[in-house]
Every structure is written in C-alpha cells, then in structure tokens.
Amino acid sequence: MSNNFVVPRSPAQAVPPHTPGMRIGLLGGSFNPPHQAHRAISQFALKRLQLDRVWWLVTPGNPLKENGTLHEVGARMQAARDVADDPRIEVSCLESVIRTRYTIDTINTLRRRFPGLRFVWIMGADNLAQFHRWQDWRRIAAQVPMAIIDRPPQSFRALASPAAQALSRYRLPETKAAGLADRPAPAWVFLTGLKLNLSSTGLRNPDGSWKGTK
Q: Integer distance in angstroms from the first to the last C-alpha of the chain?
C-alpha cells in the first residue's frame, strides 16, 4: 500500500473537525491493519453511547507489543480512512504529532487543548484484561469515562482482571451507557451484544505484511 499521507505539524491540524459540546469516543490502536471490527466497534459505540463522533487514534507504536512489523503511519492512516467509510468516524495521527506512545499523554493533551469536548475512551475487553499494565492506568481512568466492548471469549478474563477489580465501584450498568459521556471520571461501562472475532494479528502474514495486499 502506498503512503500518500503527510503527517501534520501541529496538534490542532491533527485533530478532526469538532464543535464545543460534542461527545467523542476515542479508539486508540496500531491499526496494523485496520479492519471491519474496528468499524463495527465504532458504530456500536456511536449508537449505545449516543456519541457524535468516534476518533481513531493511530499510534506510532504500542509499548506492550513488538513493533518490528509495524507499517508506516501514513499507510495505516490511509488504510484506516478507507475502512472507516463513515462520516462519524474520523482518523487522527495525533500521537505521531505530539510524539508520545502513552495513552495518558494523549488524553492529557486532548483535555487540555479541547476542554469543551466530552471524551470517552473506548477499548475491547482484551485490553481491559491487561489495562493494569498500561502506563499510569489509574490516571487514565480518573481522566475520562471508559467504555469496554465485550469480545468473547475474553469476558471473564477481562472482568476478573486487576484493573476491573480495582475500578469495580465505578462501573455503571449497561442501561446507563447513553449517559456515560456526561459522567465525571472515573466511570465505565461494559457493553455486550457485539459478536465479532476479527483481529489485526489474524490479518497479518508472518512477515508482517497485510493479507490481501502482497
């Protein structure tokens, strides 16, 4: 895949269009490659959380993963835009612009620069299972409400994880999901009902190339 994307120079240029008061879901990931599950999760979150937009934050690299086969950010950005194919889903390379690999720094930057927006952090149950390994994970939970998308068979492992147990008193019932963006952090909801098992790992060849793009 050709890389015809130019990384912006400033955070303001890297952030998608928005207006004050918008409810915005943040879905971070390597998107190596992006796939239909990313799109389905985003559309599911838009509906269940009553969001205005979901921003895909394409990371320079995941500190918890081997990044030797990671495609260039421009190629991943372009592929993500092609897969998203929904005007409510925007793709951003903010982390490449502010030169960070940690979610807490990204969230701090967004909240500081755009105080009029209401953010929700979105992640799959597989990420909740290892959330306690993330840099400053307790501070992340204290900064933004979080929506966890169930990904069977990860449900039990995720809900029994150290982070889920530590944050259990802040968990909301699914019936209150539509108001999550209006809640002060910490607050989180575990959303069930989406049945998709696609993963970026399963869509990569052993050499790191994307299946169907060789």
A: 9
